[in-house]
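Hey, can you fold this one?
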Amino acid sequence: MITFKFEEPIVDIENKINELKPRVAAEPSVAEEVSKLEQKLERLLIKIYEDLSAWERVQVARHSDRPKTSDYINALIEDFTPLAGDRLFGEDCAIIGGIGRLDGTSVVVLGQNKGHDTNERIKCNFGMPNPEGYRKARRLMQMADHFGMPLITLIDTAGAFPGVGAEERGQAEAIAKCLEESLKINVPIVSAVIGEGGSGGAIAIGVANHIAMLENSVYSVISPEGCASILWKSRENAAEAANALRLTAYDLLKLEVIDEIVKEPIGGAHRHNKKTIQLVGDTIKRALNNLIKGDISDFSEHRNKKFLAMGNAGLP
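Sure. Predicted structure:
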């Protein structure tokens, strides 16, 4: 597992535990020592992860072992049928989506997918969609509206792909059309930021009636490195930029950009994939149920008012 500098004390204890565990069966006294080390490890994990800086949360959000969109879909969506292509240019594996059932409710689900290994990451363009990916997303939004199915979106991208080909095929227009469609369709939308939420590439599928965010995920108009390159002319100021951008879940909840924080298990989502997926799944189910059974008569109008009101938190 990839570890961070701030996790070095944790790694030392984990290594010691792994070293002692094979001896537990033969030496009962070792079991007690392992138990004490495990308790110490849990206390240290709590202490470290309760006080992460913005830049440290960026690193955790990017951890390659965090569960991906495909993991959430496989675990939460029954009878999932993937749908491909934008009917204009081609298929984009950076966005996966389709129809299925969440707790018996028919839904449309879509999200950016970064991939697990090198080959999958290359195939998925490291979760950075091209215009055809966003046009596919828009097509799925229209399908959800046509059949009256709730829409679930999972956000995990550094941003839309900035390549020449993407710009030539209308990247900005594709994102704008996604935003427009999100505001038009009259079905409940629930979004969850599960890792990195970067720029317009993230918000293109993030216009929702309810927005949840994993505790150690981030959501920002630009990456800390990009911001640092513009303001300080150096990526070395990324940590300072991360703090200034107010991109953590706690910052964004205070600013009323998101509606809910999903607490991660001790040590982060990358250490507890199954538990994290379950927590996010429970959050989405509850939010969707509240929207469906609530008093919102027009989901489109609700989203429009919600996003127009953003930025006013704390103002007179």
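The first strand starts at residue 78 and ends at 82. Let me know if you want another pass with a different chain boundary.
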